[in-house]
């Protein structure tokens, strides 16, 4: 599928990650490097939660012989992704929906970056299992999202840190408090230990934490 709708106005999806996620560009570069360790010269990569297109652009720029299957539930966000990664359009297939609409593969690698803190906890294990079965044996999977301790007082402390880093300078105190409360109710967050355990339960092995950017964590694991 090639998106054909008008480009959305939500440019915050392009501007937000580099501002809110420490070392975002480095995270994408490291992800590509980890993939390249196991991908042959020509590789097929599954990008789960591809809306916005920043991963597609970064991977496409760095690895001209890779092709991509980009999955996102939002048609509007896929349109933005198509615009962001337009120069790589011939190497990208777009799929509107969740993991169920992704091709069966098998894929040489898969990424799921800044997605899982928006996914209900009870849905995560099934998604991970579905990613796993679409990967070639030994293929790499990179996942990165908000992850911090879920016991008090550490949990509240990390929520405050997450909000303080991500908001623009000069944000008033009421807005900061509103944002802290929203994090506790809108985002789905596990501790790093729970995240790693779930990856193992889904069938992944050799799970390694390779990225820690304040409240964000990133792992590489292998099918």
UniProtKB/TrEMBL annotation:
GO process terms (BP): methylation
Gene3D superfamilies per record: Vaccinia Virus protein VP39 (3.40.50.150)
Taxonomic superkingdom: Bacteria
Keywords attached to this entry: Methyltransferase, Transferase
Segments forming domain Methyltransferase type: 46-139
Pfam families reported in the protein's UniProt record: Methyltransf_12
Protein name: Methyltransferase
Organism for this UniProt entry: OCS116 cluster bacterium
Lineage of source species: Bacteria, Pseudomonadati, Pseudomonadota, Alphaproteobacteria, OCS116 cluster
């Amino acid at each position: 599928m090639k998106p054909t709708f008008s480009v959305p106005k939500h440019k915050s999806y392009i501007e937000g990650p580099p501002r809110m996620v420490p070392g975002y560009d480095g995270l994408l570069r490291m992800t590509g490097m980890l993939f390249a360790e196991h991908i042959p010269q020509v590789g097929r990569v599954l990008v789960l939660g591809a809306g916005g297109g920043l991963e597609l652009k970064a991977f496409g720029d760095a690895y001209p012989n890779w092709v991509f299957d980009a999955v996102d539930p939002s048609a509007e966000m896929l349109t933005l992704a198509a615009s962001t990664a337009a120069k790589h359009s011939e190497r990208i297939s777009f799929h509107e929906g969740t993991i169920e609409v992704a091709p069966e593969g098998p894929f040489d690698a898969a990424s799921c970056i800044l997605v899982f803190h928006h996914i209900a906890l009870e849905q995560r294990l099934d998604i991970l299992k579905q990613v796993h079965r679409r990967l070639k044996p030994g293929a790499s999977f990179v996942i990165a999202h908000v992850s911090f301790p879920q016991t008090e007082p550490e949990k509240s402390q990390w929520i405050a840190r997450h909000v303080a880093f991500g908001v623009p300078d000069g944000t008033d105190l009421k807005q900061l408090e509103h944002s802290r409360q929203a994090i506790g109710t809108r985002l789905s967050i596990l501790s790093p230990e729970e995240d790693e355990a779930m990856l193992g339960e889904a069938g992944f092995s050799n799970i390694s934490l390779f990225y820690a950017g304040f409240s964000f964590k990133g792992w590489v694991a292998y099918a």
